[in-house]
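Need residues for this backbone.
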């Protein structure tokens, strides 16, 4: 949404890589590919609360009927 509002991060901003990954999640072809990227991104930070939150959201997505 930030790219629509004009508040994109600059490439030299320390948070750019996480922002860039976040903006591209919809382009993954499978839940597995998305999951692997999330593990790589968040396991390095050892942010257990964020990992739990993301895992819960993915589990919810996995259980929703596809259209």
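Answer:
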């Amino acid at each position: 949404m930030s790219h629509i509002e004009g508040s994109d991060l600059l490439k030299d901003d320390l948070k750019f890589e996480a922002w860039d990954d976040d903006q591209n999640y919809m382009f993954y072809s499978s839940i597995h590919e998305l999951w692997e990227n999330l593990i790589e991104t968040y396991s390095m930070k050892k942010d257990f609360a964020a990992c739990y939150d993301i895992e819960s959201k993915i589990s919810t997505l996995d259980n929703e009927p596809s259209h």
